[in-house]
Amino acid sequence: MKFSIITFGCQMNVADSNWLCLALRKRGYEFTSNPDEADFVLFNTCSVRQKPEQKVYSEVGRLRSIWRKNANFFVGIGGCVAQQVGMGFFERFPYVRLVFGTDGIYMVPDVIGQLIVYPQKKISLISFEEFYPEREKVFPEKAPASVFINIMQGCDNFCAYCIVPFTRGRQKSRTKDAVLSECIEFVERGAKEIVLLGQNVNSYGQDKFGDGTSFVELLKDVAKIKGLKRLRFTTSHPKDLSKELIYLFGELDVLCPHLHLPLQVGSNKILKKMGRKYTREKYLSLVEQLRKIRPDMAFSTDLIVGFPGETRDDFEQTLDMLRLIEFENAYSFKYSDRPGTRAEKMANKVPEPEKQERLVELQELQEKITQKKYMARVGEKEEILLENVKFDSKLENRTFRGRDLWNRVVNVQIDEQTLACELVHVKIVEAKKHSLLGKVLNIL
Ligand code: SAH
Ligand code: SF4
Ligand code: F3S
């Protein structure tokens, strides 16, 4: 039996899909990247904006032709859209026979067997659990250079625009032991970098599910793992970024000097309406403190344009923050109404053409800033961690994607000798629009 997995959305979905893939392979199912040759296909979906949600419907619809040729073919839908739509998928697509949310995913590898044995059966796993459902421990023989490790699930913040607290439930931290043992296992299998994941990692441990360990304590322990070269985490909420965490950037050698810190907007009036619980002044002060501790600190962010009630003046304050902070990168989105959120019911919605205009303007400004920052890297010598290096000597295109310490993408051309190596020392030779180009100096 062959299966395929199609993933949308955030890193947490990517991490969930990686686990699912390993657990299914352990049970003897064979992975294929081509859904057309699969006996079943699993989707991991995202509903943070309307567009990715519609994409799920069209992608699932596209698979109807496989089912017409193979009556036993079936689809399972997981993630945030599944959590919302639930069994509605069964009515819409006869070949969808499984829906699962993030709390139900741990049962998926086992129920697949039932779906195969009983072709009439449909299974729904979308209820929230009153505990963090630990998953079966499965590890690849050789770990990738960089791995995502989930430290928590859900979110309690209910930012006015956001659907995540509804689709992923209340915040539930994993215990320190569960996180640590998983990290150690991956590093022993060759992982060089760990990225700790959660919707709001800064509040790790501050819920009734954790074991009392704070995020700072967790980071200190993970940083001690022998053989670990780089440690990152995402996503941070500015309201919970503590002094202790800021100091860690000056204390832990393996902690990379990069922080993804979603700003959303630069206007205090809109931040308040969003329920973000910080001001632009507070955000600027966090950036300043971090840069004092690590002068080379790089920042990336998420931005929303056209939140209900956002005036031209509010928007200009976001542009102003971009100029003041100079993010390396910004992920920017047009505000999108999500069902059940507070913002959906707010008055003074910004018309679509205006949102589009603001998005373009913001992206143009950010591109200039990114370009300036990237150009300044040319000539620098630095360490790059290569991702997905394939040990295939027949590879024609030997350019691999890697990342520098500051999380910038650096593409590197590798020869036969360096092919087996994941950490390389390179000289930056060119700045492209969204990445840098590096030339190998030596292997590390
Ligand atoms: N804490 C989460 C947030 C997930 S959503 C994290 O891991 O980053 C990621 C980003 O999508 C948010 O930071 C926000 O900028 C954007 N977003 C969320 N809801 C949105 C909406 N309704 N419309 C537009 N963008 C949205
Ligand atoms: Fe999408 Fe948010 Fe769900 Fe991640 S948590 S899949 S970004 S809706
Ligand atoms: Fe969403 Fe805000 Fe939580 S953006 S994920 S409600 S921190």
What report would you give on this structure?
- The mean pLDDT is 94.
- The strands form five sheets. Strands 2-1-3-4-5-6 form a six-stranded parallel sheet, with helices on both faces.
- The two termini are 41 Å apart.
- With 444 residues, it is of the alpha/beta class.
- Helix 10 (243-251) packs parallel to helix 12 (280-293) and helix 13 (312-325) runs parallel beside helix 14 (352-375).
- It contains 14 helices and 19 strands.
- FE3-S4 cluster binds at residues 155, 157-159, 162, 164-165, 199-200, 237.
Write the layout of secondary structure elements.
Elements lengths: L1 E6 L3 H16 L3 E2 L8 E6 L4 H13 L1 H6 L4 E6 H6 L2 H5 L3 E5 L7 H10 L5 E3 L20 E5 L1 E2 L10 H4 L4 E2 L2 H13 L4 E5 L17 H9 L6 E5 L8 H9 L6 E3 L7 H7 L5 H14 L4 E8 L6 H14 L3 E6 L17 H24 L5 E6 L12 E5 L5 E5 L9 E9 L4 E8 L1
Parallel strand pairs: 1-2, 1-3, 3-4, 4-5, 5-6, 7-10, 10-11, 12-13, 13-14, 17-19
Antiparallel strand pairs: 8-9, 15-16, 15-18, 16-17, 18-19
Helix pairs in contact: 10-12, 13-14
Bound molecules: S-adenosyl-L-homocysteine, iron/sulfur cluster and FE3-S4 cluster.
Write a brief caption for the model.
The protein is of the alpha/beta class and 444 residues long. 34% of the residues lie in helices and 22% in strands. It has helices at 11-26, 50-62, 64-69, 80-85, 88-92, 108-117, 164-167, 176-188, 215-223, 243-251, 268-274, 280-293, 312-325, 352-375; strands at 2-7, 30-31, 40-45, 74-79, 96-100, 123-125, 146-150, 152-153, 172-173, 193-197, 230-234, 258-260, 298-305, 329-334, 381-386, 399-403, 409-413, 423-431, 436-443.
